[in-house]
Write a structure and sequence with these properties.
The complex is a heterodimer of chains A (296) and B (336). With 296 residues, chain A is of the alpha/beta class. Chain A has a single domain (5-291), classed as Rossmann fold (3-Layer(aba) Sandwich). Chain A is built from 11 helices and 10 strands. Chain A has a 6-stranded mixed beta sheet, sandwiched between helices. A 4-stranded antiparallel beta sheet of chain A has the order 2-1-4-5, with helices on one face. In chain A, β9 (222-227) and β10 (230-236) form a beta hairpin. In chain A, α3 packs across α4, α3 packs parallel to α6 (155-168) and α4 (123-136) crosses α6 (155-168). The longest helix of chain A is centred in the middle third of the chain and has 18 residues, at 185-202. By secondary structure, chain B is an all-alpha fold. Chain B has a domain at 93-297: Orthogonal Bundle (MetI-like fold). Chain B contains 14 helices and no strands. In chain B, α5 (89-124) runs parallel beside α13 and α6 crosses α9. Chain B starts with a helix and ends with a helix. Classes of the chains: A alpha/beta (296), B mainly alpha (336). The interface between A and B is medium-sized, with 31 and 22 residues.
């Protein structure tokens, strides 16, 4: 079965040093499903989200592989066409609501701009739609809020607005890049619930980037565990929490702090496990041939 | 209430500043060698003649007494009479002010247009040859002072490829139907484009000479700020919405990058107005600066005082205007 988002053999590296950042990543996300991308900092989970949305930093270059969005290979179309495709079919829920809204623009235009400029809606229709989605994320007095500037709102409110903005154009895919990390613990729960509800109601495919396995268990259907830019395990949430297949996955799961036993100390991922993963990656790097051809 | 108190305190500071400027100028031009009487009388004039003129202009009294007399007159709106032209200082100065204002504002507009365009281009093509070229241009613009640019422009557009007027403000043969001294502004209002073209042709080189160093500063600062802003989260978010790089720079990054640049441009603009003194001389442009140099040569004490006070008032207004623009552009200050 082919998903709405298909990533096949995606490899990327740092342009200057040639350091590999993604190693033949395969990810399949059917329409309406939720996939978690988990891993430590620097494992490449955000990098995959950025690659899907076409906003990789200039220093990162894709060496090979394809990213298919609704069957269209983003690597094979012109940059302008790629932007239009992504703008129409995908959206981002960013990590930090405090920096993701433009401080010198009012809230309203920051929601309606994509609808008007990229999708060609009329201003009136876009405004109606913005009011609709703001109500859907439980923003009180949406008319008034649309006239405010970001600094006049709290972090939780701003994240709601960003979520509303992401859903406004009814995208088929949303990339949520650690959407609760920057928020208070009390707000985190509400936001998580909100994203989950909206995703289910709109039937949006959701790529959920997080380092929090607790979040994964609540929101996702499937997940990919990443280490050093490589998918070490691709499984369903039930199977993962019941019996993780890969040693690194089990160690990661064991390292998750539990509220049920506050006295237990935090367990780091054991050194032997990391050595095993590193050896696996070294082996697959040695066997890897860019573009299927011989190296050198 | 807050605004009122700020305005009042600002006004008081301004008045104290202006008083300080008046005292310093008054004393300095009387302490330096040379006096206006010597410039007015033919060589070999008798001691009695000199004393008579000194008494006539009040120069026989002590500096302190002279200042009291001058200052009380100023408070009544009387800036005295020019020694060299025997006309009231106030009307002389106000007659020339529009010429200098038009030149300075034209220079500012040119600097913002050139600097802004280069900054946006440099950001759009960052890390490429275009940006390197712009950096070199900025370096050249910054390291050559305005009067040298003036000479270079005269060579280029006056001698090698004579397309612009080198000297004066307007061609003497033209009949000017104007009621004010704001020739450029009035020619636009009256739709006299023939006169406007002549004015612009005269103004082009001095304005460009004043504008180039400021354009380089604007370009450099704004580019630095833009390059930071285009990597911020809201710019990245705009890219995921489908906006092109140029659109991201212009509508997301630019409004936020103007603020840090604006403060410095305000300060630099006062330097630019100061630069008009030499540039107006270089291009025989009939403005305040040119008049200031004549006044100094003739030791025309009342006129020098009048011009310096007017420049001081002008600088204060520029600073005030910058602060107000800053508050207007920054939503956080606007609502506070």
């Amino acid at each position: 079965m082919s998903g709405f988002l298909e990533i096949r053999g995606l490899s990327a590296r740092l342009a200057g040093t040639g350091q590999r950042l993604l190693r033949s990543v395969d990810i399949s996300l059917p329409a309406g499903c939720v996939r978690g991308l988990v891993g430590e900092s620097g494992a490449g989970k955000s990098m995959i989200g950025k690659a899907v949305l076409g906003v990789l930093p200039k220093a990162v270059e894709i060496i090979e592989g394809e990213i298919l969005l609704d069957g269209q290979d983003l690597q094979k179309v012109s940059p302008a066409e790629r932007r239009r495709l992504i703008g129409a079919k995908a959206a981002l829920i960013p990590q930090d609501p405090l920096t993701a809204l433009n401080p010198s623009r009012r809230i309203g235009p920051q929601i309606t701009d994509r609808l008007v400029d990229i999708l060609g809606w009329t201003k009136a229709r876009a405004t109606t739609r913005a009011l609709e989605v703001l109500a859907e994320v439980s923003i009180p007095e949406p008319e008034r809020i649309m006239r405010l500037y970001p600094h006049e709102l709290s972090g939780g409110m701003r994240q709601r607005i960003l979520i509303a903005s992401a859903f406004a154009a009814e995208p088929k895919l949303i990339v949520a890049d650690e959407p609760t990390t920057a928020l208070d613990v009390t707000v985190q729960k509400q936001i998580l619930k909100l994203i989950s509800e909206l995703q289910a109601r709109h039937g949006t495919a959701l790529l959920f980037v997080t380092h929090d396995l607790g979040v994964v268990s609540k929101v996702c259907d499937t997940l990919s565990v990443l280490y050093a830019g490589k998918v070490v395990e691709d499984t369903t949430v039930e199977r993962f929490f019941a019996a993780p297949q890969h040693g690194y996955s089990s160690a990661l799961l064991a390292a998750t702090p539990r509220h049920t036993d506050p006295s237990s100390s935090l367990k780091p991922v054991p050194h032997e496990v990391l050595e095993t993963v590193a050896a696996e990656i070294a082996a697959s790097d040695a066997a890897w041939r860019p573009n299927g051809g011989a190296r050198g | 209430m807050m605004l009122l108190r700020q305005t009042v305190s600002r006004l008081v500071t301004t008045l104290i500043t202006l008083f300080g400027v008046a005292v310093i100028v008054f004393v300095v031009i009387r302490v330096v060698p040379g006096n206006p009487i010597a410039m007015m009388l033919p060589p070999g004039a008798s001691e009695a003649d000199i004393e008579r003129l000194k008494t006539l202009y009040g120069l026989d009294k002590s500096i302190f007494e002279q200042f009291i007399i001058w200052f009380s007159n100023v408070l009544h709106g009387d800036f005295g009479t020019s020694i060299s032209t025997r006309q009231p200082v106030l009307s002389l100065v106000l007659d020339r002010l529009p010429a200098t204002l038009e030149l300075s504002i034209m220079a500012l507009v040119m600097a913002v247009a050139i600097g802004g365009t280069l900054a946006v281009l440099g950001t759009r093509f960052r890390g490429r040859k275009t940006e390197a070229g712009i950096d070199v241009a900025n370096g050249i613009g910054l390291s050559i002072p305005d009067f040298l640019w003036g000479l270079a422009l005269i060579l280029l557009f006056g001698v090698l490829w004579p397309v612009f007027q080198i000297s004066g403000r307007v061609s003497p043969r033209l009949e000017l139907p104007f009621t004010s001294q704001f020739y450029l502004f009035e020619s636009l209002l009256r739709l006299r484009f023939d006169i406007m073209a002549d004015l612009l042709s005269h103004m082009f080189m001095p304005a460009l000479a004043l504008a180039l160093p400021l354009a380089a500063i604007i370009s450099q600062l704004l580019k630095l700020s833009l390059k930071e802003t285009v990597n911020l989260d809201y710019s990245v978010l705009a890219r995921t919405k489908g906006y092109s790089e140029t659109k991201v720079i212009l509508s997301e990054a630019l409004p936020n990058s103007i603020l840090p640049t604006l403060t410095l441009v305000g300060v630099q603009f006062t330097f630019l107005i100061g630069g008009t003194v030499i540039i107006e001389r270089l291009f025989s442009y009939e403005g305040l600066g040119n008049m200031a140099i004549d006044a100094v040569i003739n030791r025309d004490l009342p006129l020098i005082q009048g011009i310096v006070i007017l420049f001081a008032i002008l600088f204060t207004f520029v600073n005030l205007a910058v602060d107000m623009t800053y508050a207007f552009l920054n939503p956080k200050l606007r609502h506070a």
